[in-house]
Specification:
Largest sheet: 8 strands, mixed
Number of helices: 5
Structural class: alpha/beta
Order of helices and strands: HEEEEEHEHEHEEEH
CATH architecture of the largest domain: 3-Layer(aba) Sandwich
Strand order of the largest sheet: 2-10-9-5-6-7-3-4
Radius of gyration: 23 Å
Shape: globular
Number of strands: 10
Strand content: 15-25%
Helix content: 25-40%
Distance between the termini: 85 Å
Oligomer: single chain
CATH class of the largest domain: Alpha Beta
CATH topology of the largest domain: Glutaredoxin
Number of domains: 2
Length: 210
Protein backbone atom coordinates (compact mmCIF):
# COMPACT_ATOMS: atom_id res chain seq x y z
CA UNK A 1 0.00 0.00 0.00
CA UNK A 2 2.79 2.38 0.91
CA UNK A 3 4.57 1.73 -2.42
CA UNK A 4 1.38 2.40 -4.39
CA UNK A 5 0.76 5.61 -2.47
CA UNK A 6 4.36 6.70 -3.04
CA UNK A 7 4.03 6.09 -6.78
CA UNK A 8 0.87 8.20 -6.87
CA UNK A 9 2.60 11.00 -4.99
CA UNK A 10 5.63 10.89 -7.30
CA UNK A 11 3.38 10.87 -10.36
CA UNK A 12 1.43 13.85 -9.11
CA UNK A 13 4.66 15.67 -8.35
CA UNK A 14 5.99 15.04 -11.87
CA UNK A 15 2.75 16.31 -13.39
CA UNK A 16 2.91 19.43 -11.25
CA UNK A 17 6.52 20.10 -12.28
CA UNK A 18 5.55 19.68 -15.92
CA UNK A 19 2.72 22.14 -15.53
CA UNK A 20 5.02 24.64 -13.86
CA UNK A 21 7.61 24.27 -16.65
CA UNK A 22 4.93 24.79 -19.28
CA UNK A 23 3.69 27.89 -17.49
CA UNK A 24 7.21 29.31 -17.32
CA UNK A 25 7.76 28.64 -21.03
CA UNK A 26 4.46 30.30 -21.89
CA UNK A 27 5.35 33.31 -19.76
CA UNK A 28 8.72 33.77 -21.45
CA UNK A 29 7.85 32.80 -25.01
CA UNK A 30 4.09 33.11 -25.27
CA UNK A 31 4.16 36.53 -26.90
CA UNK A 32 6.18 35.09 -29.75
CA UNK A 33 3.29 32.85 -30.72
CA UNK A 34 0.29 34.89 -29.63
CA UNK A 35 1.14 38.45 -30.61
CA UNK A 36 3.53 40.63 -32.56
CA UNK A 37 4.62 40.39 -36.17
CA UNK A 38 5.83 36.80 -36.11
CA UNK A 39 2.45 35.06 -35.82
CA UNK A 40 1.01 36.05 -39.19
CA UNK A 41 3.82 37.55 -41.18
CA UNK A 42 6.82 36.03 -42.94
CA UNK A 43 9.95 35.44 -40.92
CA UNK A 44 13.16 37.35 -41.47
CA UNK A 45 15.31 35.63 -44.08
CA UNK A 46 18.89 34.70 -43.30
CA UNK A 47 20.75 34.81 -46.59
CA UNK A 48 24.44 34.06 -46.79
CA UNK A 49 26.69 36.64 -48.50
CA UNK A 50 27.29 34.21 -51.38
CA UNK A 51 23.55 34.38 -52.17
CA UNK A 52 23.54 38.16 -52.46
CA UNK A 53 23.04 38.12 -56.25
CA UNK A 54 20.77 35.07 -56.46
CA UNK A 55 17.69 36.48 -58.17
CA UNK A 56 15.10 34.18 -59.65
CA UNK A 57 14.37 35.57 -63.09
CA UNK A 58 11.35 34.35 -65.05
CA UNK A 59 11.11 33.29 -68.68
CA UNK A 60 7.99 35.42 -69.03
CA UNK A 61 6.92 38.45 -66.95
CA UNK A 62 4.25 37.69 -64.35
CA UNK A 63 1.16 39.71 -63.48
CA UNK A 64 1.00 41.12 -59.97
CA UNK A 65 -1.93 41.68 -57.61
CA UNK A 66 -3.25 45.19 -57.13
CA UNK A 67 -1.40 46.06 -53.95
CA UNK A 68 -2.77 48.98 -51.92
CA UNK A 69 -0.82 51.05 -49.42
CA UNK A 70 -0.14 54.61 -48.29
CA UNK A 71 2.81 56.95 -48.58
CA UNK A 72 4.50 58.96 -45.85
CA UNK A 73 1.65 61.48 -45.90
CA UNK A 74 -0.99 58.73 -45.58
CA UNK A 75 -2.16 59.22 -49.16
CA UNK A 76 -3.77 56.11 -50.64
CA UNK A 77 -1.77 54.48 -53.44
CA UNK A 78 -1.70 51.29 -55.44
CA UNK A 79 0.95 49.53 -57.48
CA UNK A 80 -0.85 50.63 -60.63
CA UNK A 81 -0.06 54.27 -59.79
CA UNK A 82 3.60 53.58 -60.60
CA UNK A 83 3.04 51.89 -63.93
CA UNK A 84 5.19 53.33 -66.69
CA UNK A 85 8.57 53.06 -65.00
CA UNK A 86 10.54 50.14 -63.58
CA UNK A 87 10.33 49.42 -59.86
CA UNK A 88 12.40 47.63 -57.30
CA UNK A 89 9.73 46.64 -54.77
CA UNK A 90 11.18 45.68 -51.40
CA UNK A 91 8.85 44.12 -48.80
CA UNK A 92 10.29 44.78 -45.35
CA UNK A 93 9.57 45.71 -41.72
CA UNK A 94 11.37 47.63 -39.00
CA UNK A 95 11.38 44.53 -36.75
CA UNK A 96 13.21 42.49 -39.42
CA UNK A 97 16.95 42.60 -38.64
CA UNK A 98 18.18 41.77 -42.20
CA UNK A 99 15.80 44.43 -43.52
CA UNK A 100 17.21 47.05 -41.17
CA UNK A 101 20.75 46.24 -42.25
CA UNK A 102 20.09 46.51 -45.97
CA UNK A 103 18.01 49.71 -45.98
CA UNK A 104 21.04 52.05 -46.20
CA UNK A 105 22.21 50.11 -49.28
CA UNK A 106 18.77 50.55 -50.86
CA UNK A 107 18.99 54.26 -50.09
CA UNK A 108 22.36 54.42 -51.86
CA UNK A 109 20.95 52.43 -54.78
CA UNK A 110 18.30 55.09 -55.30
CA UNK A 111 21.05 57.71 -55.31
CA UNK A 112 22.99 55.67 -57.89
CA UNK A 113 20.03 55.25 -60.26
CA UNK A 114 17.80 58.25 -60.84
CA UNK A 115 14.12 57.85 -59.96
CA UNK A 116 13.19 58.65 -63.53
CA UNK A 117 14.87 55.37 -64.55
CA UNK A 118 14.11 53.18 -61.53
CA UNK A 119 12.04 53.79 -58.41
CA UNK A 120 13.11 51.90 -55.32
CA UNK A 121 9.82 51.28 -53.49
CA UNK A 122 10.39 49.96 -49.95
CA UNK A 123 6.97 48.75 -48.78
CA UNK A 124 6.83 48.33 -45.02
CA UNK A 125 4.33 45.90 -43.49
CA UNK A 126 4.68 47.37 -40.00
CA UNK A 127 1.42 47.11 -38.07
CA UNK A 128 2.17 50.40 -36.28
CA UNK A 129 1.99 52.26 -39.57
CA UNK A 130 3.72 55.36 -40.90
CA UNK A 131 5.01 56.86 -37.60
CA UNK A 132 7.30 53.93 -36.75
CA UNK A 133 8.69 53.90 -40.30
CA UNK A 134 9.33 57.65 -40.25
CA UNK A 135 11.20 57.26 -36.96
CA UNK A 136 13.30 54.46 -38.45
CA UNK A 137 14.18 56.60 -41.49
CA UNK A 138 15.25 59.43 -39.21
CA UNK A 139 17.40 57.15 -37.07
CA UNK A 140 19.29 55.81 -40.10
CA UNK A 141 19.37 59.08 -42.02
CA UNK A 142 17.59 57.66 -45.08
CA UNK A 143 16.97 60.51 -47.52
CA UNK A 144 16.60 59.11 -51.03
CA UNK A 145 13.89 56.54 -50.30
CA UNK A 146 10.21 57.31 -50.10
CA UNK A 147 8.01 55.98 -47.29
CA UNK A 148 5.36 53.44 -48.23
CA UNK A 149 3.39 51.36 -45.72
CA UNK A 150 0.89 48.51 -45.91
CA UNK A 151 -0.33 48.49 -42.32
CA UNK A 152 -2.61 45.52 -43.01
CA UNK A 153 0.37 43.35 -43.95
CA UNK A 154 -1.60 41.87 -46.85
CA UNK A 155 1.12 42.64 -49.38
CA UNK A 156 3.36 39.84 -48.12
CA UNK A 157 0.66 37.17 -48.47
CA UNK A 158 -0.67 38.52 -51.76
CA UNK A 159 2.83 38.34 -53.21
CA UNK A 160 3.57 34.95 -51.66
CA UNK A 161 6.54 36.30 -49.73
CA UNK A 162 7.88 33.51 -47.51
CA UNK A 163 10.58 35.61 -45.88
CA UNK A 164 11.66 39.18 -45.30
CA UNK A 165 13.06 41.02 -47.02
CA UNK A 166 11.57 39.96 -50.34
CA UNK A 167 12.44 42.06 -53.38
CA UNK A 168 10.72 42.12 -56.77
CA UNK A 169 11.97 43.62 -60.02
CA UNK A 170 8.98 45.06 -61.87
CA UNK A 171 9.00 46.22 -65.49
CA UNK A 172 7.36 49.32 -66.94
CA UNK A 173 4.13 47.42 -67.52
CA UNK A 174 3.80 46.53 -63.84
CA UNK A 175 4.84 42.89 -64.27
CA UNK A 176 7.28 40.97 -62.12
CA UNK A 177 10.38 39.81 -63.97
CA UNK A 178 12.48 38.61 -61.03
CA UNK A 179 12.49 38.03 -57.30
CA UNK A 180 14.99 37.72 -54.49
CA UNK A 181 14.45 36.51 -50.92
CA UNK A 182 16.87 37.88 -48.36
CA UNK A 183 19.12 40.93 -48.10
CA UNK A 184 21.66 42.13 -50.65
CA UNK A 185 24.38 44.70 -51.20
CA UNK A 186 22.10 46.75 -53.41
CA UNK A 187 24.60 49.51 -54.11
CA UNK A 188 27.42 47.23 -55.23
CA UNK A 189 28.55 47.71 -58.87
CA UNK A 190 27.66 44.09 -59.64
CA UNK A 191 24.11 44.43 -58.34
CA UNK A 192 23.54 47.75 -60.09
CA UNK A 193 24.76 46.21 -63.36
CA UNK A 194 22.44 43.22 -62.86
CA UNK A 195 19.43 45.45 -62.28
CA UNK A 196 20.23 47.62 -65.29
CA UNK A 197 20.67 44.59 -67.51
CA UNK A 198 17.38 42.87 -66.65
CA UNK A 199 15.30 46.05 -66.65
CA UNK A 200 16.88 47.35 -69.82
CA UNK A 201 18.14 50.53 -68.18
CA UNK A 202 20.85 52.64 -69.78
CA UNK A 203 24.27 52.31 -68.19
CA UNK A 204 24.95 55.16 -65.83
CA UNK A 205 28.10 57.00 -64.94
CA UNK A 206 27.01 57.87 -61.42
CA UNK A 207 28.69 55.89 -58.70
CA UNK A 208 26.90 54.32 -55.76
CA UNK A 209 29.83 54.78 -53.42
CA UNK A 210 32.15 57.76 -53.13
Amino acid sequence: MREAAMRRILGAGAALLGAVAAAVALYHYGTEFTSGPSNRQPVAANTAPSDAFNFSFFDQPRALPELRFVDGENRALSLADFRGRPLLLNIWATWCVPCRKEMPALDRLQVAIDKSQLLVLPLSIDRKGVPVVKQFYQELGLRALGIYVDQSGKASSELGAVGLPTTLLIDRDGREIGRKIGPAEWDSPEMIALIREHLGLPSGERKARP
